């Protein structure tokens, strides 16, 4: 199966925080600690340039999270073909979430060029991606999680599949996705979030299906009993995730912010236009829409 299309891998991260730490218990403490130490990247920045001080999670301060679903390729670092930005507010017990089109034309911070936003990862890895997205949105990015797309099918199968409400019937290879509520295992979920060619909404339709899968995974995972299979989950996490969050920060999020999952609001970029530059297709953001979403995200962070 081709890896070229974007993959919604955000769940691995939330499994780590909202699921993995949900089952935090004394008999798995050592295994959990070891895994989360392995995925922690201490060299990644700790404080956004748009914030004055580091966030103290114990004070229930709203925070933001950037999720990069990376398609790695032989000979290079790959591309961040899924770029998902979230703000989490424990006071309103809500999450705001927006998917950034991977072909968005913007300044690549640190490279001094204009290019597709997903190329930032190929040029400078997680750090350049964070700086580029933050510059585009003008919203502080507090935490980042990189997830390799290979782990997507594993995590869906691990939790027993996902259930989504499909708004239109379509077929991918030999699989028919019927209209209405359907259950998907890992391979099917991969096809479901990848399909774009036969969708009249194109990439935006695909982003909608990604969000459906995210929400299903979050709701199912938050109530999933994985104590007996925690080693399998920890192996998937260790093989596919990198983050600047520490174990202590994850524990604090589980303790202080877990009710935020109750309300997830999806925002979207819809008013931009496609444009060819030197034969290459780019998505050009609508400045008014970009400013509106930036303002809404900053307000959600109480900035």
UniProtKB/TrEMBL annotation:
Residues 79-221 form the Cell envelope-related transcriptional attenuator domain. It holds the Pfam family LytR_cpsA_psr. Keywords: Membrane, Signal-anchor, Transmembrane, Transmembrane helix. InterPro entries: LytR/CpsA/Psr_CW_biosynth, LytR_CpsA_psr. It comes from the Bacteria. The keyword Hydrolase does not apply. PANTHER family: POLYISOPRENYL-TEICHOIC ACID--PEPTIDOGLYCAN TEICHOIC ACID TRANSFERASE TAGU (PTHR33392:SF6). Belongs to the LytR/CpsA/Psr (LCP) family. NCBIfam families: lytR_cpsA_psr (TIGR00350). This is LCP family protein.
């Amino acid at each position: 199966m081709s890896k070229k299309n974007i993959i919604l891998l955000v769940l691995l991260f939330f499994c780590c925080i909202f699921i993995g730490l949900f089952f935090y218990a004394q008999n798995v403490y050592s295994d959990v600690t070891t895994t989360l130490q392995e995925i922690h990247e201490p060299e990644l920045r700790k404080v956004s340039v748009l914030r004055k001080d580091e966030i103290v999670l114990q004070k229930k301060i709203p925070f933001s999270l950037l999720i990069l679903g990376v398609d790695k390729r032989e000979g290079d670092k790959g591309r961040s073909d899924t770029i998902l930005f979230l703000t989490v507010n424990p006071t309103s017990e809500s999450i705001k979430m927006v998917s950034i089109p991977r072909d968005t034309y913007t300044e690549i911070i640190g490279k001094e060029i204009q290019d597709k936003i997903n190329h930032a990862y190929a040029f400078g890895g997680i750090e350049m991606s964070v700086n580029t997205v933050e510059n585009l949105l003008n919203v502080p990015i507090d935490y980042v999680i990189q997830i390799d797309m290979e782990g997507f099918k594993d995590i869906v199968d691990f939790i027993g599949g996902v259930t989504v409400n499909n708004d239109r019937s379509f077929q991918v290879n030999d699989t028919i996705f019927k209209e209405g509520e359907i259950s998907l295992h890992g391979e099917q979920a991969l096809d479901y979030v990848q399909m774009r060619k036969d969708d009249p909404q194109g990439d935006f339709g695909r982003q909608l299906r990604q969000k459906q899968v995210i929400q299903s995974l979050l709701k199912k995972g938050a109530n999933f009993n994985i104590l007996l299979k925690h080693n399998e989950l920890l192996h998937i996490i260790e093989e596919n995730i990198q983050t600047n969050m520490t174990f202590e920060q994850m524990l604090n999020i589980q303790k202080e912010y877990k009710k935020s999952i109750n309300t997830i609001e999806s925002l979207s970029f819809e008013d931009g236009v496609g444009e060819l530059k030197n034969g290459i297709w780019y998505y050009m953001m609508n400045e008014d829409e970009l400013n509106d979403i930036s303002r809404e995200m900053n307000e959600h962070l109480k900035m």
